[in-house]
Amino acid sequence: MEIYLLRHGRTTQPGTYTGISDVQLSKTGEEQVSVLSSQFISHDFDRCYSSPLIRCRSTFEALGIDNDCVYDERLREINFGQWEGLTFKQVETQFPGQLDLWKTQKQKFHFPGGDLLSDFSSRIEEWFEELLREDFERVLIVSHGGVIRVALCHLLGIGNEFLFSFTISEATVSMVVHEPGFARLELLNCRGY
Question: For the chain, which terminal residue's Cβ has fewer other Cβ atoms within 10 angstroms, N or C?
């Protein structure tokens, strides 16, 4: 199975912790996705999935693919809780020591008023296990940076401690070929392929 993982385009709130906040694509984001559309139109996808958040819905719709899309709540980004909408600097100021705690606690870190990181990872891993039981040749998933990082770690069989080993920029494609008992990374963070 070829699994294409597309991160949504730039939003109207770049540079912030935007997890479950439902923000629109910016003009730049729309342009980013427009550049990718010609590459996706040439593919036949057995199934397309997306996070239901508007930035992902808009990204999928802008691709112009002749497929229906299944919008699945489980493909939403992590809930950053009280960090939602804040910049890195604001989090440092308003939640002193929390960023360092995230680095040391890793999967045990609980975003204040939001998700426990391990619960988020489990949700994504379970979704991908369901996908792998399907008999598809090629699928497209439009989602978020955090979701794609967890998916890559899970599909490639490496631990979640490597989540931040992958750069997942806005409007980029990563692709994993998965066969029973084996997976290989074909594309990572590509603007064109």
Answer: C
